[in-house]
Amino acid sequence: MERHYLLGNEAIAHACLESGIGFVSGYPGTPSSEVVDVLRAQKDPPFYLEWSVNEKVALENALAAAWCGLRAICTMKHVGLNVAADPLMTSAYTGVTGGLVILSADDPFAHSSQNEQDTRCYAHFARLPCLDPAGVQEAHDMVGTAFALSEEFHLPVLFRPTTRICHSKGDVALGAVVPNERKGEFHKDPRQYVVIPAHTRILHKKLNEKQPALKKRLVELGLNAYTISGKTAVIASGIGAAYVQELLPPNVSFMKIGAYPIDEAWLGEFAKKHEKILVIEELAPVVEEAVRQVAGCVPVFGKINGYAPYEGELSPGVVAGIMVKAGFLEKNPFAAPSPVPDLPLRPPILCAGCHHRAAFYAAKKVFGPTAVYPSDIGCYTLGLQLGAVDTTICMGASITVGSGFAHSDPLHDVVCTIGDSTFLHTGIQGLMNAVYNGANMTVIILDNRITAMTGHQPNPNTGVTATGVETPPVSLDAVCRACGATFVETVDPYDMTGMLRVLEDAKAKKGVKVIIAKQMCVIVARRTGVKRGRYAVNPEICTGCGTCVRFGCPAIELVDKKARINELCSGCAVCARLCPVGAISLEVRR
Amino acid sequence: MSAGFDILIVGIGGQGTILASNILGEACLREGRPVKGAETHGMAQRGGSVETHIRIDGQYGPLIVPGTADLLISFDLLEALRYSHYLKAGGKMVVNRHMVLPTSVFTQKAPVLTEDEIVGQLARFDPCLIDADRIAAESGSILAQNVVILGVASWSIPLKPESLLGAVKKLVPPKTIEANTRAFEMGRAAGRKN
Q1: Which of A10, A165, A167, A171 would best serve as a mutation to test chain B binding (most B beta carbons within 10 A)?
Q2: B28 touches chain A (CB under 8 A)
Q3: B27-37 pLDDT, tens per residue?
Q4: What is the DSSP string of A454-523?
C-alpha cells in the first residue's frame, strides 16, 4: 500500500474521508485546527462543513447531524471542551444514531494552551468512550473504529490525540475515500431527545447499562491489549506507550491502553499475574487509578506515589528516568547533557507591523502603567511582552474579568483587549453584562478580520465561510451597540494620532466604551499582495534615543547606537509616527 | 536505543524548517523506509525558536532525546548553540553562518553574542558552516536557503541524494523547481564529504 508522510492531523482528516463523513464542525484551537483545515480544502465535498463561532455551538450542530443519521466530527482543543461541556454531558444520555466523534486535542506541557487538563477525565465524567492514540498511524486507524463504535453503542465517542500526535509526522498507510451517501433525516422521538426529568432519569439508566458491554468491546477490538513476558509489568497509554516500547526490557510484560473505559475484570486478571506494575501516562492518573482499584496487594508505581510527574509531557528521556527510579530499568541509557546556559531567549513575538502592537502602545500611553489590562486568548496575548496584558484566563474572559475589576477596584482604570474571533466566541455576553450592570471600563476589540493565531481561519467577521463562500460580515459596531454600548468607535491602529485621541475620549467618559481597532493581519496582508514599502532610518537625524526600539517591533534593531530597520519591515509606518526627531521615513528606492 | 538516524532541524519560525522536514520524510518514503517526526505549530511559530525532529527508520515515538541526535541542522547560528546539547558525541552539525538577533536583546537587554563568539563556542562540534543566504541568492531564489542547507547536509544523511532531490522537486512550488534544484546541487557542492 502506498504510504504518505503526513502530519497527525492530516492523517486524522483523511480517515474522516475514509469513514463517509457527512458533517464537520469545530472551533480552531492548537493543536487541533488542521483537521478541519484539511477537510475544508476538499473540492466539492460530499459533506457539510463549518467553522462554528465556539465549541458549544459546534458540538450542538454536530449532535443534530448525528441525530439525523449522518456521520459527524466536531473538533476543538481540550479547553474548548469546557465550553462544549454542557451539550457533551447530556449528549451521553440522548445518544446518537449516526456516528459522532468529538475530537478534543490535549496539550501536555501547554505548548500553546492555558492549562494541562485531560480530556479522558471528561470521558469518565460523561461516561463516554474515549480513544487515545499512541502514534500517527494509530490515530488514523482509530477514527474509523471511533465511528463504528459510536454507531454500535449509539454514543458520542471522544477522540483524544495530544500535541505530539496532532503535530507529529509519520509514514502513514491510508485507505480509500468513501463518499458520504447518507441523506440526513430526523425522526422525532421526544423520549430520546427531550430531556425533561421524566425522560432523562430513564436515559441515565440506559447510559449506565451500556458500560459493561462497552468495556468488553474495547478489549475485543484490540484497543486495550497486553503481552505477558515476565513477573513485572508496565502499563502505558497514548504516546507514552510508544516511548515505553522503545525502552522496554524483554522480560517485562507490557499492557497498552488505547481506549476507555477500561474493563476492570480484564485489568485485574493482568495485574494479579505480576509482582509489581509501573503506569506511564501523560497528565491525569486515569489509568493508574483504574489499576490501583484492581491491583490488590500488587505494588503500583506511578504519579500517585511520586514516581512520575503529573505535569508536562513525557519524552523517552523522562520515561527512562521513571523506569530507572521504579526499578524497571537498570540504568538510564540517555546521558541528558545540559543546554548552553544564559543564551538570549527567542520567544514567539508579535509580527513586524502587527497592529496589535500599535494598539497596546497607544493604550499604555493614554492609560499608563497603573491601569489594569485584562486580556484574552489570541496572538495578542503576546502583548504580555509589552506590559499591556495583566490577566488571561480563558476565551472571552477579558471583558468579564474587566467588569469584575471595575466593580471591585474603583481606583484603577480598566482597559480590556480581545480579538475579533474571541469576541464572537464568548465575548459578546460579557460586554452585554458589563453594559447592563453599569461597569466603567474601556474595551479594545483588536479586529484583524480573521482567527490568526491558529492559522488564519475565517470567522463571521471575515466575510467568507470555511469553504470559501462569501457571506455578509457581522458588524462588530452594530453588535456592540445592540449590547447597549453607546461609545463605540472604529479606528485604524496604524493611525497613532487617531488612536490616541479616541483613547483619550474613552478615558474621559463613564460607562463601557468600546474601541474597535481595525486593520488587516500583516500575514494576511502579505499573502494577499498588499505592498506598503519599507521604512528606513536616516542615521544622520537619528539620536539613538531608543523610542522606536522600545516599541518592540522585530524589524527595528539598535546597531552602533543608531536605530536600523531590517528586512522584516512591513511598512506599517507606526515607528515613523513615534520617532521624536522625524528620522524614519519611507525608503527611497534607488 | 534506536538503530535509526535522528536529525534535529532548528531555526526561527518562518524560516522553512517544516518544508525541510517534509523533504526528508518524502525522501524516506521513496526509499521505503519508516520515518517519524515532530514539529512546532501554532503561536510558538511567530518568530520564536522552533525545532523539528526527524527520525529516519524511526519505529517508536517522534522525539529525539538530548545527547542522541546524529545530525543537527540549524538555520541560525544562535539556535545551533541553543540546541547543541541534542547532538551525540561525534554527531554532525550543519549551520547557516548567519544570526537573526532576538528582539529580547533590544527590549529586555539580554546579553549580546556576536556571530564570531558563537562560531567560537560551536568549534568543539566541528560544524560545517555555510553561507546559505549567499548560495541561495546565487541559485536564483533567496527563499531556497532551506534547500541549500539540505544539500550541504546531504553528505551526512543516510538517504540517496537522488531521493532527496526527487523530494525537493515534488514539494517546492512548480515555478521554483529549477532554482531549488540548483540550490540543492550548489549546497551539496559546498558541503563536506566526510
Answers
A1: A171
A2: yes
A3: 999 999 999 99
A4: TT-B--TTTTB-TTS-B-PPP-HHHHHHHTT-SEEEEE-TT-HHHHHHHHHHHHHS-SEEEEEEE---HH
